[in-house]
Write a structure and sequence with these properties.
Oligomer: single chain
Shape: globular
Helix content: 25-40%
Strand order of the largest sheet: 1-8-3-6
Largest sheet: 4 strands, antiparallel
Number of strands: 16
Number of helices: 11
Strand content: 15-25%
Length: 336
C-alpha cells in the first residue's frame, strides 16, 4: 500500500471519536486492514439477520438504517454504519441499504477485536462513548418494568455478611459477567463492600459525583429523574440482579438520577477503579460488558421506532457512527 493511501486511511480513522487519541503508528495496522467497497443504489451493505462481521466508514453516498422493518435514519458521508451492531455481537443488528451509489472502507470485526486486545484504552473509550449515548437517551425515555431474577437472590442473603463464594455466584448470574473468569471476579468482589440500609435511604441525588457502582442483592429501590425537554418525571424500580450507577461511574460524569430505597436493601458497593481494573484484566468480560451496553442501545432504537419517535431522536442525537447510539444506562436487567 502506498504511504499516501495509508495516511488518508489513518486520517479517516481519526474522524472516529474513539480512535482520536491513538497515534498514527498505532492506527497503521487497522488502516492497512481496511478494504474498499462500492455499493449501487438499493444494494444491501449489512443484513440485520446475519451476525455482524464488519462496519463501514462512508466515503461517498448515503445509507438508510433499518431495524425490524422500521427506518431509523439515513446516514450520509462522512459517517459510519454497523459499528453499534458490531459491538453488540448479536444477529439482531441493523440493516444498511445504499440510497445512492456509495463507496466505503470496511473494517472487519477481527481487526477491531485485535485493536481492543492490544489497546485497552481504546476499548474503554469505546465503552464510555456508548454509555454517554445511553445516559442521554435514558433521560428522555419511559423506563422498562422491573424484571426480577429467575432464581431469587433472597435465599442467599441472611443476617451474616455474604462470603466470597456467594458474591462470585451472584455476580456471575448477571448477563455482563456470566462468562467472567473466576479469579478476576474474585478480585472484584473482594474489593466490594457489603452495605445494608433501611427503606427511605437516599443513596444519591442527580448532580452528585459518581465514584461507585452498586450491585443489588436484596430489596428494591426507585431511580427517578426529570426530562428537561418534555418536563416529564420518570420513575424506575430496580431490585436484585441489577447493577446500578455503573454507566456514569465508568464515564466519569455526575449522577443523572435520584436513587432511594423503598425496601430494606442489601447491595455490594464497588469503586470505579476496581471495576475498570477488572475489565482491563479480563478481555472477555470487557467485551461481554461492551456487548451488553451496545445491545441496550439497539433495544432503545426499537422502543423509539415502535413509539414513532425515531424522527425526534434523530434530531436530538448525532454521531459519526450509525447516527448516534441510543439506549439506557440503568434499567433492563441486569442494568449497568
Amino acid at each position: 500500500m502506498r504511504r499516501h493511501d495509508l495516511t488518508e486511511r489513518i486520517l479517516l480513522l481519526r474522524a472516529v471519536p474513539v480512535f482520536r487519541a491513538m497515534t498514527a503508528s498505532e492506527l497503521a495496522p487497522l488502516a492497512a486492514s481496511m478494504r474498499s467497497a462500492t455499493f449501487e443504489k438499493g444494494e444491501v451493505i449489512l443484513r440485520e439477520d446475519e451476525p455482524p462481521k464488519s462496519f463501514h466508514l462512508l466515503l461517498t453516498g448515503a445509507v438508510t438504517i433499518r431495524r425490524r422493518g422500521n427506518v431509523l435514519r439515513t446516514i450520509s458521508a462522512p459517517g459510519g454504519v454497523g459499528f453499534l451492531s458490531l459491538l453488540a455481537r448479536t444477529s439482531g443488528g441493523t440493516e444498511a441499504v445504499a440510497e445512492t451509489r456509495t463507496e466505503t472502507f470496511e473494517l472487519r470485526a477481527d481487526a477491531i477485536h485485535e485493536l481492543f486486545e492490544d489497546h485497552f484504552a481504546v476499548l474503554l473509550a469505546t465503552l464510555r462513548w456508548v454509555i454517554e449515548w445511553l445516559i442521554q437517551e435514558s433521560m428522555t425515555q419511559e423506563p422498562p418494568p422491573y424484571v426480577p431474577p429467575a432464581d431469587g437472590f433472597d435465599r442467599l442473603v441472611g443476617e451474616r455478611e455474604l462470603g466470597i463464594v456467594e458474591r462470585i455466584f451472584l455476580l456471575r448470574r448477571t448477563v455482563g459477567f456470566e462468562h467472567a473468569n473466576v479469579n478476576s471476579t474474585a478480585r472484584l468482589v473482594r474489593a466490594m463492600k457489603e452495605v445494608r440500609v433501611d427503606a427511605g435511604t437516599t443513596l444519591w441525588r442527580a448532580g452528585d459525583r459518581a465514584t461507585n457502582i452498586l450491585f443489588l442483592v436484596k430489596g428494591k429501590m426507585e431511580s427517578s429523574w426529570h426530562d428537561a425537554e418534555s418536563g416529564r418525571r420518570f420513575v424506575q424500580v430496580v431490585g436484585p440482579g441489577y447493577i446500578v450507577g455503573g454507566g456514569e461511574a465508568i464515564a466519569n460524569r455526575p449522577r443523572w438520577n435520584d436513587l432511594v430505597t423503598v425496601e430494606p436493601a442489601v447491595f455490594l458497593h464497588g469503586s470505579r477503579k476496581s471495576f475498570i481494573d477488572m475489565l482491563e484484566d479480563d478481555l472477555d468480560v470487557a467485551l461481554d460488558f461492551l456487548s451488553m451496553v451496545a445491545s441496550f442501545c439497539l433495544m432503545a432504537w426499537d422502543r423509539r421506532a415502535e413509539a414513532a419517535l425515531a424522527g425526534s431522536s434523530s434530531r436530538r442525537s448525532s454521531s459519526s457512527l450509525e447516527g448516534g447510539p441510543e439506549g439506557r444506562a440503568d434499567g433492563a436487567r441486569p442494568g449497568i
